[in-house]
Design goal:
The protein is of the alpha/beta class. The chain is built from 13 helices and 11 strands. Helix 6 crosses helix 7. The chain starts with 10 loop residues before the first strand and ends with a helix.
Length: 361
């Protein structure tokens, strides 16, 4: 998951570096070793460290063509159209879909020895427990960022997700303009699974969101929630944990809360499409991203929780950049937290209901 990006921007990074660090010393060496000196990566916008691409190019004597998407569905549509990439970074439910539709190729884990660096929280994930097709990139949860000066912490503890319907805070709430995330909130507030297929529960969640729309007048936003909360424009916001970590780092009045009713525990992971042209180089890139140096750059730059255990420990530990930042470390092992499952019928139903919610119907 990842940051919601309003506009996708495509970046073409074509710098060819010299060798070093045990990698290919030139593009000729790269071609000999991998069969190619060019790697195509498709990732979320604003979702990679400042130097990860250039350092990889320099070390392995290759060039990286780097493009970005703003939704899993956008990425899926391009794959369906036949576009070819060597590495993708989709979210959990989309990885499950790509696996089921045989659009991914199995990984050769012998070429990814740095998989031993994985953090405990991203091991044995339900959609791919043995890392047959995917290797985690970032992970996190969804919670509530709130202004401690204007929101009573006791209200959060007593009401959980239902505080988002507490009229004491009307007109001062951000909600994600996302049917998946907003219905997750409603399902959890009502005590249901966010993967429910029960029609009565789906309708109850729709009514919860419709009532919230009419009584609370929430602002439906995407990535602008970050600057909005840093600037203190609203009292509360539903926020991905990585964005929350950034908000808390920038505004000392903000805090992060995970409701007891449970939430979405999400992960984004690196995969190699079935039609990838350069799978050997793709494996090298995945292995590189899992190194301490690349993982540290990623997490410090983006703010999301690293899949590298050493980096998680360092950044959240004493003296670390996110030390004391309650949003950086996802809640792990809580039985009411869930991972989204791929269910296209449910998603389409929620999409239609979400349109009605925003229209106040």
């Amino acid at each position: 998951m990842k940051k919601l990006i309003a506009v996708a921007v495509t970046a073409m990074l074509l710098l060819t570096g010299c060798g070093g660090g045990g990698g290919a010393a030139s593009s000729e060496d790269a071609v000999e070793k991998y069969g190619s000196d060019t790697l195509k990566v498709y990732n979320w916008g604003e979702y990679i460290g400042e130097n990860v691409i250039s350092d990889f190019e320099d070390e392995f004597g290759v060039k990286v063509v780097y493009e970005v998407f703003d939704s899993n569905e956008m990425m899926y549509t391009k794959l369906q159209a036949g576009d070819s990439y060597d590495v993708l970074v989709p979210s959990d439910y989309m990885i499950e879909r790509l696996m089921n539709e045989e659009m991914l190729q199995p990984l050769d884990l012998s070429l990814i020895p740095n998989i031993s660096n994985l953090a405990d929280g991203v091991k044995n994930l339900p959609y791919d427990p043995d890392n047959t097709y995917s290797v985690p990139y970032f992970w996190g949860s969804v919670g509530i960022v709130y202004n401690q000066n204007t929101v009573d912490a006791a209200d959060l503890e007593n009401e959980g997700w239902n505080i988002l319907k507490d009229e004491k805070y009307a007109d001062k709430i951000y909600m994600y303009d996302s049917e998946r995330d907003s219905f997750m909130v409603a399902f959890k507030a009502l005590g249901y699974s966010m993967n429910t297929q029960n029609e009565a529960e789906i309708q109850a969640a729709y009514q919860w969101l419709l009532e919230q729309r009419k009584t609370m007048n929430p602002a439906y936003v995407a990535d602008e929630v970050i600057d909005g909360m840093i600037n203190g424009n609203e009292d509360m916001a539903v926020v991905y944990s990585g964005d929350a970590a950034t908000i808390l780092a920038e505004n000392e009045d903000m805090r992060f809360f995970l409701p007891n009713e449970g939430t979405n525990l999400w992960s984004d992971a690196m995969v190699i499409p079935a039609n990838a042209e350069n799978p050997k180089l793709a494996h090298e890139f995945i292995n590189y991203v899992l190194t301490y140096e690349a993982s540290l750059d990623n997490s410090e730059t983006v703010g999301y929780t690293s899949s590298n255990q050493q980096v998680v420990d360092e950044l959240s530990g004493e003296g670390g950049y996110f030390a004391g930042n309650e949003a950086y470390l996802p809640r792990d092992g809580y039985d009411k937290d869930e991972v989204f499952e791929d269910n296209q019928v449910l998603k389409e139903q929620l999409t239609q209901l979400w349109i009605k919610v925003k229209a106040g119907e």
